[in-house]
């Protein structure tokens, strides 16, 4: 029998890694991917809880999270491409239009 | 409940913003049409307000009051009286005309008109608000679009000018807010309502009044602007695009003066009395100093900007007099300065569009080349220098006449300022229109119909008020009389 | 008969509107519009005059402005003085506009010229009809601006543009005085109406009253080109000659005299003010008369002559000669307008203004020359021409006032007047042409007919104030001073004639009989005097270095002050030694500006490190958010 | 002796659960390593590939948690759709030549320390929670899930579809090359 605690530790690890990526990646696509990692970590937790209590809501939520993540990614990438067209860069620290 | 005409006026531009946002930015023509329509509707409503206004009554009219934030006794309270009616009309008129003058703004028209309409709402709200908190909110709403309008569509040093304007005004409004909060906590029961505060104004101790007055003074003085807080003005005016300069000079400066009329004087009359002499001296310094500095300018727009400093001095002088004549003159001068200097800035813009320079030394002899423009420039210049028959004269005359019994020496110094005023205005005319023609401009084109549309109404108003000024006094007189009575009554 | 005096100024106003709006379409017809308007004004003036004699006075008034809670009613004041001025202005104005159609026929801004002329007629007629100080001040300024437009009418010439500016600013200095005087009258009495002046004059505060009177006189000094503000009038000759005739000879410059006459109840109550008026007037008259002796530009001679004659009128008013001053105002208007128009005709014919290049053109321009000489005789005071009667009145009133210094100077001035006028006549019209290609020709009829009409007036207008008509004018326009019984009228009349004759005789001797040695000897003997006169007493230079330059400098330094950091701010900023290098850079930044920038720098300093927080990088912000989260979680964990 | 030991080892009856568990932990480790690669690799394309591995690993974890449906969803949606999109985006934007450009910014160390601390805190908290064994037979039947989607959760379900639609249109609008734009 697998240990739920271990799964949750694993989820925390993935979360931390994703966060690290979101913090350090210069490439906006990299940031997006890191965010996917974070979302996955959340999903793992949800599913683990569903398993723990035998409740279906966790899984249902995970499905919704996947759906939302898909939407977020689509829009994020579209913005990215639009920005790339204008700014010719995908590096987040170069996109400083709002900076004075 | 009455028909909420004031809210309608104030928020028509917001409706315009929503409409503009719905239009794709490529469709600049439609955006312009919508913006013009929004400002035009506001103008029509403003005219309707003028017609519906009861001129015999100097008290607040068309009042709208709804609770907004109950905990702090803040309400959404609008109203109009003789003090604000002319300002509201000036705002909707200049906004409409400057909107037409904005057609040639280069690039990002959608953003431009959104910010522009937001600016109009802010200005109208400031003049209509009867709650200090609401007043402050609108006051700050003006600031933000102005910052972007100067900072994005401005001239070569636009960033510097925009930041300077923003920081300067913000610094002032922080003090103003402090003053408001002090008033709130001292009033009993705590209230931000201007009318309530006016009623209870006898209760404030003189020391408290002085402190609050100075705090408000800083906020308003920067906006007016009063020497030595005026240096943001030439930079902002010169760098701002033409229509924004018009609004800056025509309306924004009036917000400071209006603050004195609406808040400082009725709520803090004893402090106002205490500060009358310094204010009169500052007024004279504004008049004389502004005129002298204007004389040294070779940049057309900067000259007009400094002439604004000079003209606003008459407002201060009239305020300081605390007589009905002087206060009427001051309020009238605010209106006239709006129309005349607004027109001057439009004319600078017309010339700049054709020559791409504002250097007065590079013009000359244009009078023969573009006679219609020359005629308009002459009329507005003469209005600005205070020629009788045009409105500027009447208001300056009234403020001086009202001040003379109170401060003789100061008035005499101020009157001698009209010589310097005449001198730099005539130098301006000579450098632009007279003398031998500079061959660079031999192909210069005459003012076009769109530009005429923006200028002729202003000229008509200037002429009308110059020839029949009592009409304006009918409008503002009762309210000013009430104010003076109130201030005088509290002093006795 | 119709009696609508309030319509008098409105006709020219309509003409102005028509010409300024539709000038291009009207073309040459704009002259007709203007002339028709001023003819209508003249006709209405005459009808108002006739009605007045019959005892019916029309009045009209409307509220124009509220001052101190009471409305100021604008209305018209029809009395002897204003009627006289109305007639003079409208008749001369009409004649000069007729003349202008010929003189200005080739000008490319023909209709604009007539627009300005109409505007001037409107302003001047309204000024005359004003019934209160406020109204007169308004039209006072308006005639000033018309004068500005018309002087710099040929604005392509820098000299014309400068002259216009000079005229406007100089008169405005006087207007400052007028304004303060007006405010004082308001303050003292609360009433701006001329009809209340006798009551105002009863005010017990004599010092303030005198001050008010003198300040009002300042306005007259500016407008009537009296010493020390006379310098603009000679320069104003840059304008077209009809303008000089109408504005700078006959009407506008006389407005100052009119103002003093209008406020005479006030002046009469303040003897000190009257003394000031008298001395300013006579100093002006004498000084301008002497300068006119040496000037060589035909229009400038007339300009100085005008200043001198205006000084005469002012001095007469100052000496209590109310009737004399106003009478001279009327006669002078006619013959000086004639002189200017004649000069214009000469210039039109010979295309130069320098009298040293003219000569012997009598035969070629007979009408011009004849009328010019008539006017010269009139101004020299040769009986029975107009100038004789009025000048005689002035001398009598001066003598009667007992101020013999003034009388003496006035007498001397009248000799000078006769001399310089005939110096002009003899040099221009007689002898041989001094320039080879002087193709003089007579002007067209449209120009000569007005000359003849004016010549007619110059001869006969004086009779209305002469004993031949039982001094009708003296009874009509009077301030109750009565006839000067004390003065030996006959003697003075004789002396006055003698003065004119002496002046003409000297001129005849020098310029017709060619006693050239005499003036040369005089010139060598009194070189300094000649230099002084030819430089107009160095007034322009004095003003340039004493007023204009300092003001320009002041303006420059005000701007520098506004622009540059003053040391205090530098030091203040310098306290922050970290920014010493930047301070050096910003040495020439703005003063009050500097404060702002300094404040910004202070913030900069204080937040030197904290500023890095505001990187604008989202990831950076996120880092701090996470740091906060970690801290919160950690605190929660160990609790 | 050694031979004996080898024989013993070979004879050792490895229980099924042990194999299952070791595979599980292997998957966890591999997924974690892949996740680390996602955030550290210089080449964004390689990162994307690592992300694919990570996502598949996570799907496997779902399997272990008795959520076959979600595992399939994960593979289909994430690996199939989102990852493809990401790789497309990488190809559209990345200049493959500029490998020298730093892919991480200057706050690497701070971020590492912070996220490490965060992980430590989370781990301690999780361990402290003392989670018991999962309920027996905690599998959720697929048809039950389906019913839930269309009964209790119909509103969020419909809503998410709307969100997806909006995102789709929005993405098209954003990425649409306007006339006149460069």
Question: Can you walk through the features of this model?
Answer:
The complex is a heterotetramer of chains A (100), B (492), C (639) and D (182). The relative contact order of chain B is 0.10. Chain B has a domain at 275-485. Helices cover 75% and strands 3% of the residues of chain B. In chain B, helix 3 (82-101) packs parallel to helix 14. Chain B has helices spanning 5-21, 28-52, 82-101, 109-128, 132-153, 158-186, 194-199, 206-223, 232-239, 242-267, 269-274, 276-295, 300-321, 324-355, 366-369, 371-384, 391-403, 408-432, 449-467, 470-491; strands at 61-69, 74-80. Chain C is mostly helical. Helices cover 71% and strands 2% of the residues of chain C. Chain C contains 28 helices and 2 strands. Chain C is globular. Chain D is mainly alpha-helical. Chain D folds into 2 domains: 1-102, Four Helix Bundle (Hemerythrin (Met), subunit A), CATH 1.20.120; 140-182. Chains in contact: A-C, A-D, B-C, C-D. At the A-D interface, helix 1, helix 2 and helix 3 of A face helix 2, helix 3, helix 4, helix 5 and helix 6 of D.
**H/E element string of chain D?**
HHHHHHH
Number of helices of chain B: 20
- End-to-end span of chain B in angstroms? 38 Å
Largest sheet of chain D: none
- Name the average pLDDT of chain B: 87
Radius of gyration of chain B, taken over Cα atoms and rounded to an integer in Å: 21 Å
Spatial order of strands in the largest sheet of chain B: 1-2
Specify the number of helices of chain D. 7
**Overall geometric form of chain B:** globular
Strand segment tally of chain D? 0
Attribute tags:
heterotetramer, C: 639 residues, mainly alpha, two-stranded antiparallel sheet, 28 helices, 2 strands, 71% helix, 2% strand, D: 182 residues, Four Helix Bundle (Hemerythrin (Met), subunit A), 7 helices
């Amino acid at each position: 029998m697998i240990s739920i605690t271990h799964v949750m530790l694993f989820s925390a690890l993935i979360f931390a890694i994703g966060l690290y990526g979101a913090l350090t990646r210069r490439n906006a696509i990299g940031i997006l991917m890191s965010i996917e990692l974070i979302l996955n970590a959340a999903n793992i937790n949800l599913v683990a809880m569903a398993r723990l209590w035998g409740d279906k809501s966790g899984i249902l939520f995970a499905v919704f999270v996947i759906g939302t993540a898909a939407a977020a990614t689509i829009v994020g990438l579209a913005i990215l491409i639009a920005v790339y067209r204008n700014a010719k860069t995908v590096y987040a620290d170069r996109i400083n239009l709002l900076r004075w | 409940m009455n028909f909420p005409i004031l809210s309608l006026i104030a928020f028509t531009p917001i409706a315009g913003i929503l409409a503009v946002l719905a239009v794709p930015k490529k469709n600049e023509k439609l955006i312009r049409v919508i913006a013009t329509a929004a400002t035009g509707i506001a103008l029509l409503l403003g005219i309707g307000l003028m017609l519906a206004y009861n001129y015999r009554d100097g008290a607040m009219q068309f009042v709208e009051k709804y609770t907004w934030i109950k905990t702090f006794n803040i309400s959404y309270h609008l109203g109009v009286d003789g003090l604000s009616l002319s300002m509201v009309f000036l705002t909707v008129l200049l906004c409409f005309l400057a909107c037409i003058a904005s057609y040639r703004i280069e690039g990002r028209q959608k953003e431009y008109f959104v910010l522009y309409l937001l600016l109009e709402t802010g200005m109208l709200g400031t003049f209509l608000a009867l709650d200090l908190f609401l007043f402050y909110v609108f006051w700050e709403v003006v600031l933000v679009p102005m910052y972007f309008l100067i900072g994005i569509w401005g001239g070569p040093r636009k960033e510097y000018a925009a930041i300077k304007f923003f920081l300067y005004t913000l610094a002032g409004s922080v003090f103003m807010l402090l003053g408001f909060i002090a008033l709130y906590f001292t009033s009993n029961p705590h209230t931000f309502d201007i009318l309530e505060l006016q009623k209870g104004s006898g209760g404030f101790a003189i020391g408290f009044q002085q402190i609050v007055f100075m705090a408000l003074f800083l906020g308003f003085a920067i906006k007016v602007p009063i020497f030595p807080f005026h240096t943001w003005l030439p930079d902002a005016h010169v760098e701002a695009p033409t229509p924004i300069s018009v609004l800056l000079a025509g309306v924004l400066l009036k917000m400071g003066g209006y603050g004195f009329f609406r808040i400082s004087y009725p709520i803090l009359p004893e402090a106002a009395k205490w500060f009358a002499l310094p204010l009169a001296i500052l007024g004279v310094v504004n008049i004389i100093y502004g005129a002298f500095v204007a004389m040294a300018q070779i940049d057309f727009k900067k000259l007009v900007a400094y002439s604004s400093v000079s003209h606003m001095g008459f407002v201060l002088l009239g305020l300081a007099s605390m007589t009905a004549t002087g206060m009427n003159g001051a309020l009238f001068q605010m209106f006239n300065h709006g129309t005349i200097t607004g027109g001057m800035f439009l004319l600078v813009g017309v010339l700049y569009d054709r020559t791409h320079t504002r250097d007065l030394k590079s013009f000359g002899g244009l009078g023969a080349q573009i006679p219609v423009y020359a005629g308009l420039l002459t009329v507005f210049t003469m209005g600005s220098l205070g020629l009788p028959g045009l409105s500027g004269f009447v208001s300056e005359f009234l403020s001086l006449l009202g001040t003379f019994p109170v401060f003789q020496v100061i008035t005499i110094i101020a009157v001698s300022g009209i010589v310097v005023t005449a001198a730099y205005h005539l130098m301006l005319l000579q450098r632009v229109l007279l003398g031998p023609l500079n061959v660079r401009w031999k192909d210069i084109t005459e003012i076009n119909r769109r530009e005429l549309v923006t200028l002729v109404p202003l000229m008509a108003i200037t002429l009308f008020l110059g020839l029949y000024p009592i009409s304006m006094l009918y409008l503002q007189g009762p309210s000013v009389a009430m104010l003076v009575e109130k201030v005088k009554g509290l002093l006795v | 008969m119709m009696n609508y005096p309030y319509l008098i100024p409105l006709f020219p106003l309509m003409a102005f509107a028509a010409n300024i709006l539709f000038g291009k379409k009207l073309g040459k017809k704009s002259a007709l519009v203007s002339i028709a308007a001023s003819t209508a004004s003249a006709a209405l003036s005459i009808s108002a005059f006739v009605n007045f004699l019959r005892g019916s006075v029309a009045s009209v008034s409307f509220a124009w402005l509220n001052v101190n809670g009471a409305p100021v009613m604008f209305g018209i004041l029809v009395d002897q003085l204003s009627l006289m001025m109305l007639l003079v202005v409208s008749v001369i104005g009409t004649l000069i506009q007729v003349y202008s159609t010929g003189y200005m026929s080739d000008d490319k801004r023909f209709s604009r010229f007539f627009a300005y002329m109409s505007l001037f007629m409107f302003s001047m007629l309204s000024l005359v009809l004003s019934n209160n100080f406020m109204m007169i001040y308004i039209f006072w300024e308006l005639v000033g601006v018309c004068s500005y437009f018309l002087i710099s009418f040929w604005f392509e010439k820098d000299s014309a543009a400068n002259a216009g500016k000079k005229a406007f600013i100089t008169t405005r200095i006087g207007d400052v005085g007028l304004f303060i005087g007006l405010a004082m009258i308001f303050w003292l009495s609360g009433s701006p109406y001329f009809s209340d002046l006798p009551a105002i004059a009863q005010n017990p505060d004599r010092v303030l009253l005198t001050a008010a009177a003198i300040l009002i006189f300042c306005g007259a000094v500016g407008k009537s080109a009296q010493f020390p503000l006379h310098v603009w009038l000679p320069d104003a000759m840059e304008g077209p000659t009809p303008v000089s005739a109408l504005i700078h000879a006959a009407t506008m410059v006389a407005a100052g005299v009119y103002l003093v006459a209008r406020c005479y109840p006030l002046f009469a109550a303040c003897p000190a003010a009257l003394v000031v008026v008298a001395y300013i007037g006579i100093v002006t008259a004498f000084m301008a008369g002497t300068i006119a002796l040496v000037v060589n530009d035909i229009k400038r001679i007339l300009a100085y002559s005008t200043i001198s004659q205006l000084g005469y009128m002012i001095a007469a008013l100052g000496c209590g000669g109310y009737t004399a001053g106003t009478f001279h105002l009327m006669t002078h208007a006619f013959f000086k307008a004639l002189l200017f128009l004649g000069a214009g005709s000469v210039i039109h014919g010979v295309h130069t203004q320098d009298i040293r290049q003219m000569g012997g053109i009598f035969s070629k321009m007979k009408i011009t020359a004849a009328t010019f000489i008539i006017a010269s005789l009139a101004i020299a005071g040769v009986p029975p021409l107009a100038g004789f009667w009025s000048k005689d009145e002035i001398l009598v009133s001066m003598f009667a006032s007992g101020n013999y210094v003034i009388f003496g100077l006035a007498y001397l001035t009248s000799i000078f007047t006769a001399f310089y006028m005939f110096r002009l006549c003899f040099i221009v019209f007689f002898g041989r042409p001094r320039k080879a290609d002087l193709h003089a020709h007579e002007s067209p009829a449209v120009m000569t007919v007005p000359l003849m009409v004016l010549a007619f007036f110059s001869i006969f207008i004086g009779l209305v104030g002469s004993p031949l008509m039982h001094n009708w004018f003296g009874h009509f326009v009077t301030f109750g001073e009565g006839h000067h019984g004390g003065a030996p009228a006959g003697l003075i009349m004789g002396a006055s004639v003698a003065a004119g004759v002496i002046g003409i005789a000297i001129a005849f001797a020098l310029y017709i009989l060619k006693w050239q040695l005499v003036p040369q000897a005089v010139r060598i003997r009194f070189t300094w005097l000649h230099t002084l006169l030819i430089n107009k007493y160095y007034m322009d230079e004095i003003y340039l270095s004493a007023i204009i330059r300092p003001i320009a400098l002041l303006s420059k330094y005000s701007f520098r002050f506004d622009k540059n950091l003053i040391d205090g701010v530098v030091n203040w900023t310098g306290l922050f030694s970290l920014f010493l290098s930047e301070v050096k850079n910003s040495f020439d930044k703005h003063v009050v500006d500097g404060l702002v920038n300094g404040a910004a720098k202070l913030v900069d300093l204080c937040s030197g490190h904290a500023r890095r927080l505001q990187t604008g990088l989202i990831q950076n912000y996120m880092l701090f958010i996470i740091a906060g989260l970690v801290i919160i979680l950690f605190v929660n964990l160990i609790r | 002796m050694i031979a004996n030991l080898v024989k013993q080892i070979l004879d050792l009856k490895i229980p099924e659960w042990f194999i299952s568990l070791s595979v599980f932990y292997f998957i966890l480790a591999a997924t974690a390593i892949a996740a680390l690669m996602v955030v550290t690799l210089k080449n964004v394309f390689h990162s994307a590939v690592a992300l694919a591995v990570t996502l598949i690993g996570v799907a496997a974890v779902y399997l272990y948690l008795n959520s076959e449906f979600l595992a399939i969803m994960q593979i289909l949606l994430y690996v199939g759709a989102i990852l493809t999109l990401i790789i497309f985006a990488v190809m559209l934007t990345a200049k493959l030549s500029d490998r020298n450009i730093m892919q991480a910014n200057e706050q690497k160390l701070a971020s590492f320390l912070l996220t490490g601390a965060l992980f430590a805190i989370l781990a301690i908290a999780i361990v402290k929670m003392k989670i018991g064994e999962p309920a027996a037979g905690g599998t959720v039947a697929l048809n039950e899930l389906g019913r839930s989607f269309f009964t209790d959760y119909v509103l969020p379900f419909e809503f998410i579809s709307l969100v997806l639609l909006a995102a789709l249109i929005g993405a098209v609008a954003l990425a649409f090359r306007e006339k006149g734009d460069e």
